[in-house]
Amino acid sequence: MRYMIMVRANADTEAGRFPPDADRLMADMAAYHEELARAGVLLDGSGLKPSSTGFRVRWEGGRQHVVDGPYAESKELVAGYTLIQVRSHEEALQWARRYPNPMGGGRDAEIEVRPLYELEDFEQRGMSGTARFRELGMG
């Protein structure tokens, strides 16, 4: 089972500001991700630049629109992620509880953890076309 641990953005991450204890935070994050790697569950992880550097592609009324950042609701944005592959929901929860405070120090922060769909989830619903994704090495 794959899970994505998402770090919620805040005003500082959206402004591209790092906390005063950024060196300590980087060391804590590196240690945590090294632990994940040693356990064989780490798939990927990274911080995301502020939404002002990105864009969204939106489909409305059958038409495609590109909307440049930044976006107003920073609390709804993702500032970083870690992708893990574990055996159970409980194991994902255990790893999430060990996640360092992503904003550093005693600052308020939030992570959200959600399972990814696996190709088997679609196959169980009778959906076809999963073989093409398998050929690409996905899922």
TrEMBL record:
YCII-related domain ranges (all copies): 1-105
Stored InterPro entries: Dimeric_a/b-barrel, YCII
Family: Belongs to the YciI family.
Name of this chain's protein: YciI family protein
Organism field: Ramlibacter humi
